[in-house]
Specification:
Arc Repressor Mutant, subunit A; 5-stranded parallel β-sheet; 50% helix; globular; alpha/beta; Rossmann fold; 5 strands; 2 domains
Length: 228
C-alpha cells in the first residue's frame, strides 16, 4: 500500500516541486494539495491522508494552527504531520513541537530525506532533519536555562530536570548522545552496532525516563543535562 500524502504550501512552485519529488518515490502517492491552512484542515479531514506535509507560514491559518487542529493535544484521532520550514525563525519550530508535529524538514532537505520522513511518519516514527536539530540546540543553548519562548510569546520547551528518577543505562546514554548529534535511527544502529528494533527500544525507554515527547525534546534534555 502506498503512503498517501497531503501537501500544504501557499507557494505553487513549492507544491509542484514537492509533488514531483514524492510522486517519483516508490510507495508514496500525493492525494491532495492545499494552498493555505484552512484548506489543509478541510482536505485532511476529508481525504484522511497517511501523512500531512505542512509549511509553517501560510495564509488564513498557518501550519501551526493546522497542526494543532489535526494532531494537537486532545485530538481523538491525530494525523501524522511533518512540518517543512525555511527555518527563518527558530521559535516556530518550538511551537510546532507543542502543536503535535511528528517531523521537521528544511525545504532544501532533498528527495532522500523527504522520502524517509514521510515513511517514518506513516509508521509512527519521527524523522527530524539533522540541520534542524543542530539549529534548535544552538538556539536553546543561547537562551540559558528555563526554557525557550515560543512564537508570539507562547511558552516554549520547558527546562527539564538534570537527572531522571530512573538512571539511564550506559547504552541508553550512547543512544541519547547520538540523538543529540542529529543522527537517525538507522545511523545510530550502524554506529553502535545494534539493530533498528533495539535502537527504538532504547529510545522509547530514554523518552519515558526523561519525560520527552519526541527526539528534539530528547536532544535538548541531553544538552541541558550536560550544562548542569
Amino acid at each position: 500500500m502506498s503512503v498517501r500524502v497531503l501537501i500544504a504550501d501557499d507557494q505553487e512552485l513549492v507544491r509542484a516541486g514537492l509533488r514531483m519529488i514524492l510522486d517519483a518515490q516508490p510507495g508514496i502517492e500525493v492525494v491532495g494539495e492545499a494552498r493555505d491552512g484552512v484548506e489543509a484542515i478541510e482536505m485532511a479531514r476529508r481525504l484522511r491522508p497517511d501523512v500531512c506535509l505542512f509549511d509553517i507560514r501560510m495564509p488564513r491559518a498557518d501550519g501551526l494552527a493546522a497542526t494543532r487542529e489535526l494532531a494537537g493535544p486532545g485530538v481523538a484521532d491525530p494525523m501524522p504531520v511533518v512540518v517543512v520550514t525555511t527555518f527563518d525563525l527558530d521559535e516556530y519550530v518550538y511551537e510546532a513541537l507543542r502543536s503535535g508535529a511528528r517531523g521537521f524538514l528544511l525545504k532544501n532537505a532533498g528527495p532522500t530525506l523527504l522520502r524517509e520522513a514521510v515513511h517514518a511518519a506513516a509508521r509512527g516514527d519521527a524523522l527530524i532533519d539533522p540541520n534542524v536539530t543542530v539549529r534548535l540546540l544552538e538556539a536553546f543553548a543561547g537562551t540559558g536555562r528555563g526554557g525557550v519562548r515560543g512564537a508570539e510569546g507562547a511558552p516554549g520547551i520547558p527546562a527539564r530536570p538534570a537527572t531522571p528518577a530512573t538512571p539511564l543505562t550506559d547504552r541508553e546514554q550512547d543512544v541519547l548522545a547520538a540523538v543529540a548529534r542529529g543522527l537517525g535511527n538507522a545511523e545510530i544502529g550502524r554506529e553502535l552496532h545494534i539493530s533498528l528494533s533495539t535502537v527504538k527500544t532504547h529510545l522509547a525507554s530514554v523518552m519515558a525516563k526523561v519525560g520527552a515527547r519526541n527526539r528534539v525534546e530528547l536532544a535538548i534534555w541531553a544538552i541541558e543535562s550536560r550544562e548542569r
